Amino acid sequence: MQALIAKRLFIGLVTMLAVSIIIFLGTKILPGDAAQIRLGQSASAENLANLREKLGLDRPYYQQYLTWLGNFLSGDLGNSLSGDAPISGLIADRYKNTLIVSALTALIGVPISLALGIAAAMYPDSYLDRSVSMLSVVLVAAPEFFTATLLVMFFVLFLGLGSTIVSGSTEGMGLFALIGHFALPIATLCFVIASQMIRMSRAALLNVMASPYIEMAILKGLPRRRIILRHALLNAIGPIVNVVALNLAYLVTGVIVVEVYFSYQGLATLIVQGVQTRDYVMVQSLGMIFCAVYVVIMLIADIAAIMSNPRLRHPR
Amino acid sequence: MKFRTKNTPDFENMSLSDRERLLGMVGQGATRRDVMRWMMALGATAAASGTAFGSATAAWAATPKRGGRLTIADDQHGPADTLDPALFASSNDYFRGRMFYGSLTRLTPNLSYEPELAEEVLSNDDATEWTFKIRKGVEFHDGKALTADDVIFSMNRHLGPDTISKAGSLVDMVSEWVKVNDHEVKAVLNSPNADLPIALGTFHFKIVQDGATDFSMPMGTGPYKVKEFRPGVRTIGVRNENYWTDGAYLDEIEHFGIGDPVARLNAFLNGDVDLMANLQPRAIEMVNAAEGKEVWSVKSGAYVNLACRMDHSDSNNIDMILAMKHLMDRERLVKGVFKGEGSLGNDQPIGAAYFDHCPDLPQREMDPEKAAYHFKKSGIGGTTIPIIASEIGPGCVEQCLFLQREAKKIGMNIDVQKVTTDGWFSTVWMKAPISAQSWNMRPTANIMLSLAFKSDAAWNETFHQDPEFDKILVEVRGVQDPNLRKEMYCTLQEKIHNENGCVLPAHRNYVDANASYVRGLSHVPINNFGGSECAPTLWRDDV
To answer: CATH homologous superfamily for B299-509?
Structure first.
């Protein structure tokens, strides 16, 4: 087991290194550079050259990359190329929002989705199953900005509850105050992640339900609820955990639309702004953070899948 | 500078100091006759003086109240936000600049100027030396008194080849700033410029403290002090109790950006923000219909246009360009796309909001017959004309689509290619033969023309070369005779109108929105939020 984790972590690190190189090249392929965007169209060639030299953009690519890598490994995220603010400060202003929203969404959305999925699997082809399936298909088809708009229209503009943007400090808020503060973004994201989890948990369970040992249990006359919760669920955990993990990682890295719509500052907006200003240092740093989140969450999911499945635990 | 007071001084167009004086008179019980006598002495007509008395009485009823807090949403913000005036890059920087700093001069709604931190502005006869007498008794937020050293330091940041200033080109005729004494500085110019004090009233020329290098919590002389500045998150300013003049009425201003136009509008309609920048034209009717919300529209010289490169064989056919100029449905663009919050363009950039606008130039109308004549003369026949456009501003894409439709009727094939905004300026602008542009207004005609129409200008997007145009443009900078000045500017505008590859169908207003309890709005036409000039005068009527 430990050997396995060590191996996975090593692969994770290699992945991160590869990703950092890809991101670096990606930011360099884009037209324009940070100096040009910062100085705007009016910049003279001299001004541009001055700023490029100051920002180190005049050096060969491999040197820029290696300098960044060295600083990053020594824990120095560097300064933003677009405004000289330290990147650690920019991240510090934003990571809490991202963390709070994704944690609360997971806390609320994951149990509800799994419960719905399991319930649907428990009574296949019932009205419950059909309505849940229908709901999840509708949700998966509705983009975030649409869901968010509907929620704002109904709750804020129609019922007059809450506000359309999430602003202000979250300092010193308790759990319920935080849920209230971020209610609409959390609700939007719950809808977004729910569909995949509902469908996956239902499908995984029904898949297991088709296996011979469940048939045996049915023939023995066990109640369906007991069969599912006690015998089937454990064997379906692998794929369910995987889809939950993917959604959690998405919550940390990919919620740009929701952040922009509700106008709170999170990490996803920051990386997009980094791309727009060709600030490769910031894009790289955030890319590494996101990549690490993926690696760790997927690792946990794999471990959970292995732990729950004896065949994987004791590979032949 | 008498010739700058072109507008009849109705109340909205009066300079701030005149307006305050008038308000003072009304407040002290002056009669209509007193006011008219005073105003006619200033050169106003009797009718205008009467109207001004009415406006002033109404305005005095709304004398600013102190207190309260406003939440203000700009249309963008991000990690690049800065409080270093030389590096200001966007509207949200400009707004904060006005909150926290002061400048030597301040722009007025008719794009003249009035002294601010300079209490007196004087020039020599040929406008090659400008003297600024610094106001005494002005303090920075940390209590340090404003002196000539601060002014010299601030101004020198925009000079020289190594300057990092984004506005260096506006003052590149200044060869040096000289300290005369503690409260007097002099700008020595290497070529005449009658408009220098106007340039110094624009966004970047804010006065910082002598020696300032760190702009994370800077000291200014503005109406508000920095309480919190977090780039891309929010900025909070609190009242500067020692502000040297009237203003700074609010206890606190919170300012941030909401990039998404729909989210911004929702936040505004729901009352989460009190002022919002950049109201999309399609939402204008919605705000007008909403209770307690107002559209804050300022007529300006900003415009949308097509830039046809005169140095490119695909686009330098003057008859093809004239055909396009005659095919633009200007009325429909202003009504349909800008919802009336705009004005007709006349294929030259100096619209009616500019001081030096030439009213004698006849308005070009849509005329399919003339267009067909030029189209035939151009000999391009069925060749497809590609125009590249992007949503870089309202109306940019629509002007192309309108043109495309009209062109089809006379057999002209226009292919509109829509691309993404990202990378527009480095990959399309000034590279494609014909591209659709959106321009902001500049404070003076000369700045605008020098920036984008002079043959050697870095932003000469049509690459039109005309030595005679350049000669007049440089000469007029030193001309102080109003008639000659007008004539010269008219020649320049006519030349662009007829000879340049700039197809300019419409000017757009700067349109923002405010809750109706927000008062003290400014109307300087060079940017959103009344030229980003409103911060000192904003107040709340409901406190």
So the answer is: Dipeptide-binding Protein; Domain 3 (3.10.105.10)
Does residue B294 surpass a pLDDT of 90? yes
Token pair 């000659």 is found at B484
How many domains would you assign to chain A? 1
Residues of B in contact with A282 (CB under 8 A): 79
Q: State the number of CA atoms in the 13 A half-sphere of B95 facing the CB.
A: 32
Task: Give domain status of residue A172, yes or no.
Answer: yes
Predicted local confidence at residue A169, as pLDDT: 72
What CATH code is carried by the domain that includes residue A247?
A: 1.10.3720.10
More reliable by pLDDT, B446 or B166: B446
For chain B, the structural domain boundaries read 3-218, 299-509
For tokens 């760190």, what's the residue?
A: B214
**CB environment B529-541: b (16+ within 10 A), e (fewer):** bbbbbbbbbbbbe
Q: How many CB atoms lie within 10 A of CB B174?
A: 22
B423 touches A at CB < 8 Å? yes
Interface test with A, best of B260, B276, B438 (most A CBs within 10 A): B260
Q: Is B426 on the interface with A (CB under 8 A)?
A: yes
| Contact at CB, B234 and A273, closer than 8 angstroms | no
Q: How close B276 gets to chain A, by Cα (Å)?
A: 13
Taking contacts as CB-CB distances below 8 angstroms, the residues of chain A near B163 are 47
Query: What pLDDT is recorded for position B49?
Result: 62
DSSP at B170:
G
The answer on pLDDT for B48 being more than 80 is: no
SS3 A228: helix
Q: Does A263 touch chain B (CB under 8 A)?
A: yes
Domain of residue A281, residue span = 87-313
Considering CB atoms only, which of A80, A90, A276 is closest to B422?
A276
Q: Which of B71, B263, B429 sits opposite A260 (nearest CB)?
A: B263
Alpha helices in chain A (DSSP H): 2-29, 34-39, 45-55, 61-73, 87-122, 127-141, 144-151, 175-181, 183-209, 212-220, 224-226, 233-253, 256-262, 267-276, 280-308, 310-313
CB atoms < 10 A from the CB of B314, how many? 15
Q: Who's near B474: CB < 8 A, 6+ residues apart?
A: B191
ipTM value, please give it.
0.76
The count of C-alpha atoms lying within 13 angstroms of the C-alpha of B350, restricted to the half-sphere facing its C-beta, is 28
Paired tokens of A168: 């202000």
Rounded to an integer, what distance in angstroms lies between the CA atom of residue A185 and that of residue A277? 26
Nearest to B460 by CA among B470, B475, B474: B470
3 state DSSP class of B309 = coil
Residue B525 Cα, gap to closest chain A Cα (Å): 21
CATH architecture assigned to B3-218: Alpha-Beta Complex (3.90)
pTM of the model: 0.81
In a domain, A103, yes or no: yes
B72/A contact by beta carbon, under 8 A = no
Characterise B88 by phi-psi region: left (phi > 0), alpha (psi -120 to 50), beta (else).
beta
Matching residue, tokens 């209770």: B291
Residue A222 lies in a domain: yes
For A:36-95, CB contacts with B below 8 A are 36, 38-42, 44, 46-47, 50-51, 80, 82-85, 90, 93-94
Mark yes or no for CB contact B230/A93 under 8 Å. Answer: yes
What's the mean pLDDT in B109-133?
92
